[in-house]
Write a structure and sequence with these properties.
The chain contains two helices and 13 strands, in the order H-H-E-E-E-E-E-E-E-E-E-E-E-E-E. By secondary structure, the protein is mainly beta. The protein has one domain: Sandwich (Jelly Rolls), CATH 2.60.120.10. The protein is globular. The structure holds fe (ii) ion. The site of fe (ii) ion (FE2) has 4 residues, from strand 9.
Length: about 200
Amino acid sequence: MSCQASPAPSSCDFPGRAELVAAIDAAIALQEPEAIGAALAASLERLIRSGRLQPPAVVLEPATDHYARRLLYRSAEHGYVVIAMTWAPGQGTPIHDHDGMWGVEGVCHGRIEVIPQRVVAREHDGWRFQSGPVLCAGPGECACVFPPADHHVIRHAGGEGVAVSLHIYPHEMTACGVYLDAGDGLHRLQRRHLQLDAELA
Ligand SMILES: [Fe+2]
């Protein structure tokens, strides 16, 4: 299903969208980020594993030179967003943060790796990180990210075929911090503007 082929829709519908939106609405009513994350991760996992949540087929199309970010839903009432990210083999992120907001992510196709990064020191203008264990996630596996301990790397897990993950944030993330390897054991912080490859909401 391609939403772009629809006759001027006001939003992109897909199987499971209404149930997903209801689950997010219920979760954010809990107000506390940790409670929201736990409830939302459980709901997202249940929806994906049941097969009821089927994002539009366009999310299976990778971008050639970056991982693709497509907006699937934006809540007019609450402001939260659902982003589909598409990872081709070899694609991934640098170490990054989430601009101070919580996030819930779940894999709905293929496999990704998530590598937590613990801040061990800030020296001059650099950050020193210690990589955590590589967490390999497949369909239905969900995780939460809470600031300030939110630094991590996400990448395609290897092998053929794309991976697709869904990411839910309390509002649109238009920029975040990325931490680029300076080659001396330190990482330099840069503010990076985040773009969408498509707005299907
Ligand atoms: Fe992230």
